[in-house]
Amino acid sequence: MALKNNRQIEKNHTFWQSFNHAWSGITRVFQQERNMRIHTALALLVLLVALGLRISLGEWYWIIACIACVLVAEVLNTVIENLVDLVTGKTYSELGKHIKDMAAGTVLITAFFSGIIGLLIFIPKIWLLIVH
User: Fold this and answer.
1) What domains can be seen in the chain, in order of their start residue?
2) With the CA atoms of 78, 83, 85 and 86 taken in that order, what torsion angle do they form, in degrees rounded to the nearest 10?
3) Which end of the chain has fewer CB atoms at under 10 Å, N or C?
4) What is the pLDDT of residue 7?
5) pLDDT grade for 1, boundaries at 50, 70 and 90
6) What is the pLDDT of residues 34-56, one digit of tens each?
7) What's phi and psi for 23, nearest 5 deg?
């Protein structure tokens, strides 16, 4: 591995190198972004509710897909925000603000529709528990 000032400058040569860099990125997003921690906590709550309500296999697919989409959207939002900060030198830019707002909007849209899917799955089951 070629290093420059103790930093890797070439492509990863092994799967484990790639995995470690990816894991480092995930942990950094989790550490730095409050919304990532909130989304993760809500995802864990949703998984517990799904277990308690004994949802079907097909419903599990939807829940897992929604959770993954929201978490991926949050990571991409963070990447875009960091790129804007890198390009602008963390100085105000009207275009940079629009880009950041649009990136945040993708997370909002993803979370909103994931919430709708969750409600469509959970409300009928909760209703049956209340009625019976």
Assistant:
1) 34-131 (1.10.287.3610)
2) 140
3) C
4) 76
5) very low
6) 999 999 999 999 999 999 999 99
7) -65, -40
Q: Which helix (H) or strand (E) holds 3?
A: strand 3-4
Helix axes 34-53, 15-32, angle to 10 degrees: 100
In tens, the pLDDT along 56-102 reads 999 999 999 999 999 999 999 999 999 999 999 999 999 999 999 99
Q: What is the pTM for the complete model shown? A: 0.89
Spatial CA neighbour of 109 closest among 66, 50, 78, 46:
66
Cα separation of 77 and 93, whole Å? 17
Query: Considering only CA atoms, which of 19, 120, 25, 118 is closest in space to residue 72?
Result: 25
Instruction: List the alpha helices (DSSP H) in 33-132.
Output: 34-53, 57-88, 94-131
